UniProtKB/TrEMBL annotation:
One of its GO terms (biological process) is methylation. This is Uroporphyrinogen-III C-methyltransferase. One of its GO terms (molecular function) is uroporphyrin-III C-methyltransferase activity. CDD domains: SUMT.
Length: 256
């Protein structure tokens, strides 16, 4: 019987992989990796390791979750040491819970290796703390894509008047609808909003506005991107660091 490691690869910057996550990559016979995993992390793999891509590409045919689950089971039953490498954290919108359930049902040994989720890291690299003593004592991590059986108004009503900071995954395409539902249900239209595209990577780009203006300002932003709603976004003006640091480093390289 083999063993499966469900590993969070972090949000994009390869240096944000955990020590335990790196060890799991190095020791695996087989690595199943997702679309949002930085390819540089695969350089840690053994030269004999088999790499299997099983990412889910929006609007394109991809490997189904059912097939991925079965592949993990089949490979483990063959006796392999498998690292299932997932962007961010496997238990934060990564379907790691579903995969762990399947492994447990089949009596397959597994370990969970948490990773840094984009909901914390992307705002941090954009100079936005998700909590701050003067601005926000509560934060919610939510998805812009909800189950069709859930009442959308009820879902966003709870969030509009609840947590002071919202970190919204998978919401870029639904941004106009999200803005409408938040303001309709009581969130002030002047609430600051930021969109962080490819957070923590060299391609990171941030757009800032308010619930009233962000839809127009975010037309140039595509997935993957995090949406941050709340007064904490104001702090970006003072503590933004990554994009400016990277620009300065790039300028130094070009002029040296």
């Amino acid at each position: 019987m083999g063993k499966v490691f469900l590993v969070g690869a972090g949000p994009g910057d390869p240096d944000l992989i955990t020590v335990k996550g790196k060890k799991a990559i190095e020791t695996a016979d087989i690595i199943l990796y997702d679309r949002l995993v930085n390819p540089e992390l695969l350089d840690y793999a053994s030269i004999t390791a088999k790499l299997i891509y099983c990412g889910k590409n929006p609007n394109h045919k991809s490997v189904s979750q059912v097939d991925t689950n079965q592949l993990l089971v089949d490979l483990a039953l063959e006796g392999h040491t498998i690292t299932r490498l997932k962007g961010g954290d496997p238990f934060v919108y990564g379907r790691g819970g579903e995969e762990a359930e399947v492994l447990a049902t089949n009596d397959i040994s597994f370990e969970i290796v948490p990773g840094i989720t984009a909901g914390i890291a992307a705002p941090a690299y954009a100079g936005i703390p998700v909590t701050h003593r003067d601005y926000s004592s509560s934060v919610a991590f939510v998805t812009g894509v909800i189950n069709k059986e859930i009442d959308k108004d009820e879902y966003w009503r709870h969030l509009a008047l609840g947590p002071e900071t919202l970190c919204i995954y998978m919401g870029v395409k639904k941004l106009p609808e999200i803005v409408e539902l938040l303001t309709k249900n009581g969130r002030n239209k002047n609430t600051p909003v930021a969109l962080v595209h490819m957070g923590t990577s060299k391609l990171q780009k941030t757009v800032v506005g308010t619930l009233e203006t962000i839809v127009h300002g975010a037309k140039e932003i595509e997935n993957p991107a995090m949406i941050i709603v709340g007064e904490v976004v104001k702090l970006r003006n003072r503590i933004s660091w990554f994009e400016e640091t990277y620009k300065n480093e790039l300028l130094t390289q070009l002029t040296s």
